[in-house]
Every structure is written in structure tokens, then in C-alpha cells.
Amino acid sequence: MRSLNLRAALLSLALLVLLLAVWQVATLPSGGSPAPAAASMTAEEIEYAKLLGKDPTAGAAPAAARSGFPTPAQMAAAAWAQLASPFHDHGPNDKGIGLQLAHSLGRVALGYLFAAAVAVPLGFAIGMSPLLYRALDPFIQILKPISPLAWMPLALYTIKDSSISGIFVIFICSVWPMLINTAFGVAGVRREWLNVARTLEVRPMRRALEVILPAAAPTILTGMRISMGIAWLVIVAAEMLVGGTGIGYFVWNEWNNLSLPNVIFAILVIGVVGMLLDLMFARLQKAVTYAD
């Protein structure tokens, strides 16, 4: 197993080096010369000429435009600049990546905890009561497929606060996987275990906490893991819509500034944080999984 892990790590490293090499080659300038008119002009003069409707770079080689995509070295410089001061705050449009990430994680945590506080007890009740399951199933089936972002206009209209609306959207997108998995896990507890508890006259609350909850815990954690993945996906799009703060707003703001290195760096940060959140829930899931 250790040998397999080592070979997998080496293969991943080789793929990363290959990807960086392809990226470097693809973003190298091709040596094409700029247009004659633009050769003797400064960047400000070129921009001014473009505003007047005259593009002095029109005759430039096509490869010059391709080189506008950042190279790996430019990406490394942008990442270093962001990581050197991750919590700086120089106004609404100039906040560090760490500060933006903290805003996003705070919204996700609040929306997710509210969803867990509603979904787990309700899922427990639905799983234990066939009558409640049949009564609530039509509502769940109708509300579940609705995109979380579709709720955003309604949230902004009623709540009138963009940050709380983002938390509400996280709540909506997190609640369904947790609710359905909890109900499924509770309903799937083996009848023999429940019969033994009933024979021993175990009180309902104790039966729920000491028999049903441990038995359904792996399924419940699976739903919570799925919910966290969806919540992290949705928060980026929600923050792009509402603006203000957050990693989604950071991506959109840097795009408006035409800073592609910062956009790519933020995308990588989103991926790394998502992976860490998933690893955390995978550890929790492994801790409650039992051999049947």
C-alpha cells in the first residue's frame, strides 16, 4: 500500500510538471513584432488611440494577443503578492484573499449550521414516521430540484441584506441532502436492533440516541458531506451576484480589473479549500462507519 501511494504521488507530481510545462510553452511570446504604429507609442498612448476608435496594434502578430495569458512565473508572483498580505483591507475593492475567504467560510458555516439544525431532527422524524414521510414527500420532491440561486431574488426582496441572503441560499442548498440522507438512514436501521430495544423497554429518547443515531450516522454524514460540497460551490456564485465581500466577489472584482493571475489564483484557492472541507468530512465519516 505504501508503495502504491508513493507511485501515485510521483505520478501526480509528473502530471503537475507536465501541465506547467505545457502552460509555459503555450504562453511564451512567439517573437512576432508589434504593429509599426504601436512600436513607437507608450501604453497610455495606445489606450488613448483605442478610445478614439483607432487601434494601433491592429497589425500586430496574432501571437502577441495570446501571450496576454499569464505565464506560470507571473502566476507565482501574483500568488506571492496575495499570500504576503492576505488580510489587508484597503477599501471595498481591495481586500486580501484571506479576508475574503474568511467572509465566505463564515457565510457557509452559518448557513450550513442552520440547515443541519433543521434537516437532521426533521429527517429523524420523517425516517421514524411513515405517515410524516408520505405527507412531506411531495413538498420535498418539488422544492429539492430548485436551483439555490433561484431563491436569491426572493431572499434579497424579503431580507433586504445581501450578506444574510447569501447565508439563506447556503441554508437552502444544504438542507435537502442532509434531510433526505437522515430520513433514509433512520428508516434503514435494522428491525432486529429496534425490536431488541423495544423488548428491553428502552425509552424512546434513549432508543433514538443510543440505537438509531449510531446506526444511521454514516448515512447522515454522507448527506452532510454532500451538503458541504454543494454549499461551497454555491457560495462562489452567490457572492458574484450579491457582491460586497467573499471569494466569489474577489474573483468577479479581479475579472473586472482584468487581473487574470489573481483570478486563477483565487480559483486555485477555492479548489484547495473545497478539498480540505471534503477531507474533513471524509475523516468524520470514517470515524462513525462500522462493520455490519
From TrEMBL:
Gene3D superfamilies: MetI-like (1.10.3720.10). This is Nitrate ABC transporter permease. It is a multi-pass membrane protein. InterPro entries: MetI-like, MetI-like_sf, NtrB. Keywords: Cell inner membrane, Cell membrane, Ion transport, Membrane, Transmembrane, Transmembrane helix, Transport. Belongs to the binding-protein-dependent transport system permease family. Residues 101-281 form the ABC transmembrane type-1 domain. The chain crosses the membrane at residues 109-133, 142-159, 165-189, 230-252, 258-277. It is found in: Cell inner membrane; Cell membrane. It holds the Pfam family BPD_transp_1.
